Structures are given as structure tokens and as C-alpha cells.
Amino acid sequence: MLGSSTALVWLVLFAALFAIPGLIYARLKQDKLDDFLVARNSQSSSATLLTLLATTMGTWILFGPAQAATWGGIGAVTGYALGAMAPRLIMIPLGNRIRTLMPEGHTLTEFVLGRYGRVMYGFVLVIMIFYLFISLTAGLTAIAKMVSLLAPVPLWLTATIVMAATLLYTLYGGLRVTIFTDRVQMLVILPFLLLLIAFGWQATGGLTPALQGLQEKAPHLLNPLDINGLKSGLTFFIAVVLTGLFYQGTWQRIFAARDNKVIRNGFILSGLLSFPIIFIMGLFGLAFVGLGLPGDGSVALFSVLLSDVPVWFAIGLLPFGLALIMSSADSTISGLTSIMVVDLRRLLPKLSNHNLLSLSRWLIVLLSVPVLVVASQGYSVLYLFLLADLLCCAAAFPVFFGFYNARYQSYNAVLSTFAGLVAGLMVFPAPGAPLTYLLESFLLASLVPIAVSLLLLLMPKGKLFDFSILARRVRKLEG
Fold first, then answer.
1. Listed residue (11, 15, 38, 55) closest to 152, CA to CA
2. Contact assessment for residue 461 and residue 406, using Cβ atoms and an 8 Å cutoff
């Protein structure tokens, strides 16, 4: 559709157009280290809404929901969309609580260390970094594949251009610049989403042809009570909801919000708006099946769209895809930076803030090398995503129950998480195996910790946890 040279020129140009405003803004806003990490109490409801929407809508929305619809139907799409919306609503009380307990906090790992000690902290730290790594890899893989559908550009080249541009302004400017560029990127994302939906409607000839085809070829995909669809939808819901609670980019925005009212407004609206967007993206998968289009369900949306579109629209997909990946990748990079700085401060207390930040930046650059290597291969990282989801499911109740219950002891959290992980892994599919018992695996990983926690609470009462010590253990990173 496009020549490789033409696509590369446009790709570099659009990447620069997103990166340069961030660099300029960063020079105007030279923050102290604490604000570099969390932009504390600085963001309005509208800024919080836009940055959360931008963070939610990574390049995956062009691939994941539509592919899920091709084998799980309307039930899978609904579960996917609800799963993206629910964490935003759950984070409102959790966010208010952590701001009360740790008004100078930066990360969820700080809370876990202060509340439960090093064992639970180590587990949560590993799953959060693992999830951020996989999320970044998947996003770069998706944008590289999208560009390859438009032009014969090597995957590694696209991934490298996007990664370099995003690292440049994110590592230089921190969270405040990430939130600023999110707003710029949303100026591209929202109008082009509407344009994409309009072209999709035109390409399918409206709803009727796709619905007729589905009734003939795969009527079960339209049945919201289909067992396979319900299982798929519930699987997506559990996985996306519980994993979303461990995303450091969201916790940064909790601390960045001006007050609790901003958290409530921004998180509710972003959750409500994300549902129809993801649901509509999923409908492209149903159209793909209904119209009997050739190709792989993983690129169902593009199979529907690119059959007959003008060249300007194909070129327009480049800034759209870049805005999607950069708005989520910069949040992931910023989240990784905040975790590294906070934990390196604990390991190297005598290191100056300048050297601390420099070390963290170089570690992120080094981490980007394996990310680029994996993304350049075009592998599906679905299995690793599912594994990260399972780890989050096992830790979710133990971590967040301890936000409120002072009787909940560290050993209870550790044993409950371990029990959930063992139970889930017992039926978790092996690499390359069918995902037959994936729902059962997630249910066991999520529910066993609840049962074990409640049973251990029946034991003789231990010393009640003093939540006030959390505020004393966490301090601003001045300078």
C-alpha cells in the first residue's frame, strides 16, 4: 500500500512531532525528583481523564478485542471491555486510601514493603516489573506489525524508531511530560478513532451484511449466552481487572491528581469512555468472520479496513498507531523509572538524586534492548501476558485486603498468595497447549487466596498493624 521509504519518512516525521513537544515542555518544566516521578497533586480532572484514556488505549486495541471476538464472540468482547473499565472504578477507593496512608508515596511497592515486609514486597516487585516489560514488548510488537501491513518495513526498524523517540522525552521529562504528551496524542487518537469507525462502517456496508454472514457461518458468536463466549468474557474480565490494579502508571496518576475529587471524576469518566471504544474495536472481529474475509484473526480489524481505503487514510494510520503506542509506552517507561528510583534509593541511600536518576535512566535504556529484540521477532506475547495475569490474580486479594484490615498479618498475605499461585499453576496451560482450563486457572488463583486468608484470620489475633507508620516510612525525594 505504501513504499518502504515513504513509510519510513512519515514514521520518523510523526515520531518526531510527538517527541519534540515533550522535549520543549520538559525544558520549561524542570521538576525536582519527586515531581519527576509522580507530578504530585498537580493534575486537574480533565488532564487525569485524558492521560488515563491515552494510557488505556495502546496499540493493542487494534488487535486484541477484534481477535478475541473471532473466537469468543460478543461475550468475549463484552468481558474485554468491562475488564478495561472496572479497574478505573476500583482504583477510586484504593487511590483515596493510599493517598491517606502515604501522602508522600510514589509506588504500590512502597506500600507492600511497609505493610507486609520483604517477601511479599519482592513478589509484587517482580510481577509489576514483569508486567511492565511484557506490556512494552507487546505494544512495540503491535505497532511494528501494523506498519508492516501498510509497507514492507522491517519490524526491528519500526520498533527502534518508536522506542528511541519515546525514551527521549520520557526519560528527560518524567511523568509530568508524559501526561502532557498524552493530551497531545489524544488530539490525534480521538478524531482518528471516529474516522476509523466511519471507514469500517463503509467497508462492511453497515451492520446487515456482517450479521447475515454471522448467522450463516458462526451464529454462536452473536449469542451472549453461548458457553464458550461467557467463559472467554469472564476470563478476560478477571485477567484484565486484576492485572490493571498492578500497573504502576495508574498509581502514578493517583498521586498526580490534585485531590480525591479529581481522582473520582477522572477515573469514572475514563472508565466509562473506554468501554464503548474497546467494544466497538471488538466488533471488527465479528465483521471479519461475518464477511468471510481471508487472513488471520489477529489482524481482523485491518482485514476489514484496508481492502479499499485512500492513500491518505493509510498514511494517517501511522500517526494514529504512533499516538496509541507512545501514549502507553511512555507511561510504562515512566512507571519503570519510578519503581527503579524508589528501590535504588533504598539500596544506595548515599547516592545523590542526580546520580540516582542517571543510573535509573541507563538501566531503562539497557532494559529496552531485550524489549526491542523480542518485539523485532514479531512473536505473540499472549502466553507471557497470561502468566503475568495469573501472578496478579494470586496477589490481588492479599495486597489490597491489607489496605483496610489491620488484623491481616504478613504471613497471611504471603501464604495466601503462594496458595493461589500453586492452585492456579496446577491447571494453567503449558506453552503451546490449548487454553482449555484458562478460566479455571484464573478462578483458582483469585479465589484460593481469599479462602486461605479468611481461614488464617480465624487463628488467635496477632498484633494489629499500625497504619500510621506507613506515612512515617515514606518521604519525598527532594532535589
1. 11
2. no
Q: What would be the CATH architecture of the domain defined by 4-380?
A: Up-down Bundle (1.20)
Number of H helices, E strands in the chain: 18, 0
Contact of 346 with 339, CB cutoff 8 Å: no
pLDDT over 80 (residue 398)? yes
Cα-Cα-Cα-Cα dihedral sign, residues 260, 266, 267, 269: positive
CB 128 within 8 A of CB 391: no
> Does the pLDDT value for residue 478 go beyond 70?
no
- Give yes or no for a contact between 86 and 94, defined as CB atoms under 8 angstroms apart: no
Cell numbers placing 330: 511512555
Instruction: Indicate if the alpha-carbon torsion angle 19, 25, 30, 31 is positive or negative.
Output: negative
Q: Which amino acid is at 106?
A: H
Model confidence over 153-175: pLDDT tens digits? 899 999 999 999 999 999 998 99
In angstroms, rounded to a whole number, what is the distance separating the alpha carbons of residues 200 and 194?
10
Q: Which residue do the cell numbers 492521560 mark? A: 51
φ, ψ dihedrals at 47, nearest 5°: -65, -40
Q: Which has the closest alpha carbon to 414: 444, 456, 442, 385?
A: 456
pLDDT in tens, 180-230: 999 999 999 999 999 999 988 888 888 888 889 989 888 999 988 888 889
Residues contacting 265, CB < 8 A, separation 6+:
45, 48, 49
Residue carrying C-alpha cell 452473536: 222
- Rounded to whole angstroms, the Cα distance separating 211 from 222 reads 8
SS3 381: coil
Beta bridge partners of 5: none
Length of the chain: 479
For 346, residues 6+ apart whose C-beta sits below 8 A from its C-beta are none
Give dist(CA 315, CA 192) in Å, integer: 12
With contact defined as beta carbons under 8 Å apart, do 56 and 270 qualify?
A: yes
Domain ranges for the chain: 4-380
Q: What is the spatial distance between Cα 144 and Cα 166, in angstroms, rounded to a whole number?
A: 15
Widest distance between CA atoms in the chain: 71
Q: Which three cell numbers stand for residue 223?
A: 449469542
Judge whether 412 and 398 are in contact, CB under 8 Å: yes
